[in-house]
Amino acid sequence: MIRKLIDSFEEGFISLLLVSMTLLVFAEVIARFVFHAGIHWAQEVTLLLAAWFVLYGASYGVKVGAHIGVDVFVKMMPSRLHRSVTVFAVVLCLIYCGLFLYGSWIYVAKMKMIGIELEDLPVPKWMPLSILVIGFSLLIVRFLELGWKVVKGDAEGFHFADEAKESMELADELREAAAAEKEAMKKEGQL
Known about the structure:
Oligomer: single chain
Strand content: under 5%
Shape: flat
Structural class: mainly alpha
Number of helices: 7
Radius of gyration: 23 Å
Number of strands: 0
Mean pLDDT: 87
């Protein structure tokens, strides 16, 4: 129950960020080219929304296996070695995210201490930049979850999105649909 609620929140939040960014850019284009006036803060807010979308979405991508990866070589390894390589990769990802989290924490803390505001809005700059800390913290949690699943044997790898496999499945479905349509036309005497 709680898991579904969290999933719904994450998907809704990512959708909200994307829709907000799209509508803001659309409104700015209409204002600029139709009314010959711009929204002076639109570019900065769009950039911040994009940062939130990317950094928050990256952790969600790890969770659902939406990232693209080249794992042909790793998939050819024996299962035990495959899992070991995955654990090593997860450790490298955790180190990478940990370094960025540390740097982000220092950067956001300095922004808060200095008290700088955004260029176009009277909002303290550290607030929207806090996505750096949030995003890398969430990535660390996702990689820890993945690593634990691999260690327990519940998962073998990163579960990257397999575009080639999905494309082949789509091509097979289209072939089957075309064959069924052709067969139906034969039965009706149209061919």
